[in-house]
Amino acid sequence: MPDLTAVKTALRAQRIETPSWAFGNTGTRFKVFTQPGVPRTASEKIDDAAQVHRFTGVAPSVAVHIPWDKVDDYAALSSYAKEQGVAIGTVNANVFQDDDYRLGSVANPDPAIRRKAVAHLFECIDIMDATGSADLKLWFADGTNYPGQDSIRARQDRLADALAEVYARLAADQRMLLEYKLFEPSFYTTDVPDWGTSLLHCVALGPQAAVVVDTGHHAPGTNIEFIVALLLRAGRLGGFDFNSRFYADDDLMVGAADPFQLFRILHEVVLAGAIGPEAGVAFMLDQCHNIEPKIPAQIRSVMNVQEATAKALLVDQPALEAAQRSGDVLGANAVLMDAYNTDVRPLLAGLREDMGLDPDPVAAYHRSGYAEKIVADRVGGTPASWDS
Ligand code: RM4
Ligand code: MN
């Protein structure tokens, strides 16, 4: 059995980043449902993110998405966040919501549109300079819908050129995280559809580029932990966008659809010694809470990541290795399943008490009155949403 004190120390050091867009209104292409009390500004999203950290103690940063979180003064936004007890984390670029991007952004056949997209990515680096954010996260909707629509190879060349320009603008302590997604909104080709494409670009760029694994961005049945193991081995796992999916890019709460998969992924991270922040693997949530209340959903998501991490840390590694060495197929599997089947909730409740937190973060949030307060206070204005 692993040493419980060491397990608790690792859990206490883990950092999980919340996404600002999870606090705004979101929906599907059919309907965006509005909820009362939703933030109207970037600062109000930060207020909500601060609640997630207040009750979990392990979510001290919030990712921003530009232009959804556009403000006049990013240094002031960063100071405001610090006053609320959180920091501004990853800066997410958005080159997918402008009419100009109908045929793509950085891989668009029109050089003027490519320049516009690159200018936005530079703007994101300027924001990082102002906020002190370390990571620029890039996800491109670029691709084609019909065979013959554009040259697959030419699009890769344009993408590579744009990435190189942006990479050259990074400071020594900044990283570029390149996310991939199988399909949607493009339905025939996507320019960064998979981890192999992302990794090839990152390797060509240099050591400050790394791959982001969004757990919702694969074909059904993909063995994500295998991808994670390979990227860790190559030193190119920049981080995760955690969420769950039943069908496509569903953006549901992490650990809701397949907690066993989440455990298997985190087991690979534990084996690589990469749970702690110093390892450079960013644990980010990328979720939308279309119908459920958003702040408790984020709290629950953080707890789900913690539970899967705790189970992964509980794997008896010497016993696992011994079983593997001796070819004990069932024994090795049993070691893993024993850890997975452990109820880690008491361990985490105890950890929270050690940290001076309520052992039940969701109940504590409900008792706090914050949900009622934002409904009463946030009257008027335009609720934040992913389409505004
Ligand atoms: C994309 C991708 C990005 C996220 C946007 C909102 O599908 O997952 O990470 O920023 O959605
Ligand atoms: Mn994502």
Provide structural commentary.
There is one protein chain. The chain has 388 residues and is an alpha/beta fold. It has helices at residues 4-13, 42-56, 74-83, 111-131, 152-168, 195-205, 224-233, 259-271, 294-313, 317-325, 329-340, 345-354, 361-368, 370-377, and strands spanning 16-19, 61-66, 87-93, 135-138, 143-144, 175-179, 189-190, 209-214, 237-242, 282-285. It has an eight-stranded parallel β-barrel, surrounded by six helices. The radius of gyration is 21 Å and the shape is globular. The mean pLDDT is 98.
Can you tag this structure with a few keywords?
388 residues; two-stranded antiparallel ribbon; binds manganese (II) ion; single chain; 10 strands; alpha/beta; binds beta-L-rhamnopyranose; eight-stranded parallel beta barrel
Instruction: Indicate the mean pLDDT.
Output: 98
Q: Compute the CA-based radius of gyration.
A: 21 Å
The portion of residues assigned to helices is 40-55%
Bound molecules: beta-L-rhamnopyranose, manganese (II) ion
Distance between the termini: 51 Å
Number of helices: 14
Strand order of the largest sheet: 1-2-3-4-6-8-9-10
Outline the biggest β-sheet. 8 strands, parallel, barrel
Return residue spans where pLDDT drops below 50 for at least 5 consecutive residues: none
Which range does the strand content fall in? 5-15%
Shape: globular
Structural class: alpha/beta
- Per DSSP E runs of 2 or more residues, the count of β-strands stands at 10
Order of helices and strands: HEHEHEHEEHEEHEHEHEHHHHHH
The gist of it:
The protein has 388 residues and is an alpha/beta fold. It has helices at residues 4-13, 42-56, 74-83, 111-131, 152-168, 195-205, 224-233, 259-271, 294-313, 317-325, 329-340, 345-354, 361-368, 370-377; strands at 16-19, 61-66, 87-93, 135-138, 143-144, 175-179, 189-190, 209-214, 237-242, 282-285. The protein contains 14 helices and 10 strands.
